[in-house]
Amino acid sequence: MSGHSHFKTVAATKNANDAKRGKIFSKMARVITIAVKEKGPDPSINMQLKSAIEQAKRFNLPKENIERAIKKGTGELAGENLEEVSFEIFGPGGVSVIIDGITDNKNRTISEIKTITGKYGGKMAGEGAVKWMFKRKGCIVVNTDNKNKEEIELIAIEAGIEDILVKEKDVLIYTNPEDLEKVKKTLEENGLKIESVSLDWVAGENISISDGEKESLKKLFEALDENDAVQNIYSNIKI
Topology of 1-134+203-239 in CATH? Predict the structure, then answer.
């Protein structure tokens, strides 16, 4: 694995302005609601919900917002008719991109994504045109503040991971999706500080593009992230 390109703006927005923070909180609440709808409101048996709540707490989503999102998922409170969506696009430089989102109006969101993609030099792809290049993997991001990278790598390997990628202050640990919770628990028991846990799309091979194309791709990703429905953006750009 030469690199994993998962566009995560949330990680850089802990000190965002009120408007940006409100958008992030809304997106996190939607993830919680969807998780409850799919597998119930008990985080002890709903790993998707547990992970969503943990992530929301890391970014200070108020407790009442979390509770309200759970109640919308159970139907105790009225809420939007949400559904998960996924789009495949080709970006500048021929980069393959997967966009995962949650929306209350799929047709509107398709139109918005198409408009944004075209504006920044990309185009929509047919179903399956991109996803065949990716695999679903568990991804655990570990912070290196309290342990050195070599020690983290040793602990991770002993936990039974698939792959590992060291990036500046973070170590990205990859697992089979079904092993995600087990590996996370092992890492925590060994004193590692976990920044995030997710199921990601990871490209089998990554490509290099020019600096100009990278700048265009960055603008595309930033514009997509501003869309209320967009949750995660994955690509096969080499990092």
Answer: Alpha-Beta Plaits (3.30.70)
